[in-house]
Please model this.
Amino acid sequence: MNGDRLRRFAAEALGIVVAFALAIAVGMVLVLLLSAEPGHALYALLIQPLTSAFYFGNVLERAIPLIFAGLSVAVSFQARQFNIGAEGAIYIGALFGTLIALYATFLPGPVHQLAVFIAAIIGGALVGWLPGWLKARFGANEVVSTLMLNTIAIKFTSYLLSDPIRDKSSGYTQTVTLPDQVLLARILPPSRLHTGLFIALLAVVVTYGFLYRTTIGYEIRMVGINPRFAAYGGIDHRRAIVLAFVVSGILAGLGGIVEVVGIHQKLIENFSPGYGFDGLLVAIIARLHPLAVPFAAFFYAYLRAGAAIMERESDIPQEMVSVIQVILILFITAEALMSFFRKRMNRRTEHAR
Amino acid sequence: MLADILAVFNLGLIFMALRVTTPILFAALGGVISEQAGVVNVALEGLMLFSALIGLFVGVTFQSPWLGLLGAIVASLLLSLVFAFVTQTLKADEVVVGIAINVFAVGFTVFLMQEFGGDKGSYNPAHPVALPNVPIPWLNGVPGLGMIVNGPNGQGLNVMTYLSLLSVPLLTFFLYRTVFGLRLRSVGESPLAAASVGIRVIRMKYYAILLTGIFTGMAGAFMSMAYVNMFLRNMTAGRGFIALAAVLLGARKPWGTFLAALLFGFAEAISNMAQSLRLPSQLVTMFPYAVTIITLTWFSVRDYRRRQRREAAL
Model:
């Protein structure tokens, strides 16, 4: 039994490593074709993020929102709900938290900070709940409803930032800097890496515990694996679906506020460059397993950080990595490729017997 | 204020709505074909964006909007082929691959703009090309109709707008009156039954995805060579997703989808016009998205009730 699990894990890992290698190889070929100084560009892309504490801090700070977003997507996808609403929940979580940070200043420090996070959790839960309820109750397509909610959430945040909560003395659409007592401490200056990293890792463990060690987590996974069997076994699939959406929203909402109080220290219009969608790709790379999400997020952040350095130091724009990312996703999601590795692994173990 | 708001609702609004409906309608009709064959095609947005840039590149290079249109269609077909190969041959999840293609299209178009145009925000060619508008002057004599088809300045609707409207009956005929259309629908309805009478299911799904690609190519060409005559970063701005909503609202049928696309077109046109009324633009532009959720919910509730009534009757 244990050997079987190990073999399955090894096959999975081998498939993912090959996908990584192929994706990076395609990226290298692109750079070789397009750059006048390919060696320099590749060094900036692949090596430089690991060469100094500052660059490495950059990688880690980029990984934090991706961990939250990746967890968010993993939870709802485990219930086979194509919830693409992480982006909207990131904004509403950030917005709710910011409102408390700005206006509940009468609270003592630690309580104030806690209240900020709770507000973000409530905001994220609300944004997650609505499409989940519509899906579970009426069968309203969640892909469309979450995509629409994303845009509404982003525009609503922009609207509040355009006037009601805007820092009028600033030329940008953003709030004033939030009070010190709600901000997260920086841990690797001069990079912006902050203690939100630990919150993210805590979220990983909690999400894992929730999905794999609680009844409702089990129900969520069963609804995803086989809804009929789940119903036959007496699982209330509507409740499981709604809860999967709500937890997903909470994780994304937390990711939003952590980014605000950790990195920007104020709410800025369009502060998320599509973390919700990146989170989807991260979750897929992690094969929807919460414990694998931080590694996938780290890899993703490493590519992004490397790409930013490459753009500064060479003639290749950073958007080149979107090619690497998509190739990686296509390889990893291609069932046929993955089962090829599984079969080879099985054949080899049969020979060994 | 009220008079201002009422002034938005005039015949010019219909002209404007038809114009902004065009890319949504093209993409949505493409989506209908995929959906009818049982393929969930979330990649409409990315296909449209990618083909908008490539089409403009080709059109500007050869200084011909028609070759640009062809280029857009070919670009969309190529990316659709990738989608088809990965989802049908390699059996990857359609929603995930669709989203991946969208993320790819946003990044890759910016990459191409930077590499070949030197600017990340827009590609604004010195000699742009435009698909022509088709004014019909003799209709100006008909009260009302002249305003609708020729617009307030008499410039006429775009040729692509007429093509998109024409596509609705053509697609209906194709899907419901040809053998090929019947086979395509049978694959979506019941792949096992279709396979049992000798229809090659995977191949039919390939055809459906590629046909969708032709439509998203036309949608993209309209964006960069008619709606405006340049390419802007992420210029499709969610129209592919709205098109997807239109397909679902329209019950996956061409005429229903046409009506849904028109509804979204009107919502967008109203929000465009209302922006000039000093209403907060973010709130006004939220309108089409809110309409989508509300109508989606409404239709789902209706289907849900219908299902329940059927079950109660048994």
About this structure: The first helix of chain B runs from residue 2 to 8.
